[in-house]
């Protein structure tokens, strides 16, 4: 490289993040617990590609007139638009429709993977993030919806969050009935009313009343324009929030049926409760909707105590698969935001170990004897022990040990010329060494004590390391 060659600055695009071994291990352990619950309920894994034809994602894109708005898109050699998946549900609908004749019905599946949003990133808002979904396609009754809610509760319990969450349930049919009774007919006004209902937890009934009417001014003086309802119209909506749903509504009957199933299975209101303020997916959902809300408090960016909030949700979406087939295909499911849930587990001390154990490192004390060191590594690997030979600059013993320490290695193996002549090895237990060194303040004393180091016969290498790893847990 010449002096005039311009170096590229290593940097990530906004809205994306790297993941370290510790983060990967912790999230992997969390995901494994979720999978165990899903599989206990009879769900099987399926994997769909990152790219789908843009038309597959269809009307559920933010703006279908601009293929690159909201999603990352490109054209293939046939000039067909393809997009990185926006969620995991639209690809499932395509997969089910494409394999309709061979799949069991109902079809129960779970999927885990990254999704992509071509949106402006911000605090806690990423362009790439992981979701973990479960769906039942082909079952139209409230039993399938109730099962989703119970499975969500079981997932939270399995992750150690018992008593720190509630699954809140509502039904879009009830909401639609309220809007109809209130005389709200335009899509724009419906959207504003539903957004006002969604703010109940944040602003209370009086704040919602203002948002249903002319609008609301916050403490900073910023004004949010309201839905423009009359007092009579607003009262119908507020009565609904207060527990007075419209009469003769299919959604009310479905919620009652779900409640009877929750009661029969022993899921009380502390785990799953009917909540009229739940609003999700204005065009997407067609029946029951639900979300997992974590109820413990955290501090926001202003230092204020706030409830952690939602880490996932879902509902019934009977219209999605029918985009691919003429017959109606009912479906229900939910999605967990993996990164947000992992952050919640971290705050509650339930995320698991921050750093996975590294490999046993065989130090290279004599470059001419590399083959001997490689043989040790092979013996360990063939016995199922994670191991490696140091491949860096071998002239400095201390730097080799420091490398192993940085790798979070449980131990290093030392064979110098004296050890080789005697047929022995020195094992340095780095875990015990750290614990012992913490009590030694004098460097000379530390060198003399060689904490955590012991001697074994060369032929006992595998058994000695197995014993050491077992003791370390």
Automatic annotation (TrEMBL):
Keywords attached to this entry: Aminoacyl-tRNA synthetase, ATP-binding, Cytoplasm, Ligase, Nucleotide-binding, Protein biosynthesis
Main location: cytoplasm
A Pfam family reported for this protein in Swiss-Prot or TrEMBL: tRNA-synt_His
GO cellular component, one term: cytoplasm
Binding site for L-histidine: 87-89, 117, 131, 135, 280, 284-285
Reactions it catalyzes: tRNA(His) + L-histidine + ATP = L-histidyl-tRNA(His) + AMP + diphosphate + H(+)
The protein's Enzyme Commission number: 6.1.1.21
MF term (GO), any: ATP binding
GO terms classed as biological process: histidyl-tRNA aminoacylation
Domain of life: Bacteria
InterPro entries: aa-tRNA-synth_II, aa-tRNA-synth_II/BPL/LPL, Anticodon-bd, Anticodon-bd_dom_sf, His-tRNA-ligase, HisRS-like_core, HisRS/HisZ
Similarity annotation: Belongs to the class-II aminoacyl-tRNA synthetase family.
Cross-referenced NCBIfam families: hisS
Protein's recorded name: Histidine--tRNA ligase
Source species of the chain: Devosia ureilytica
Lineage of producing organism: Bacteria, Pseudomonadati, Pseudomonadota, Alphaproteobacteria, Hyphomicrobiales
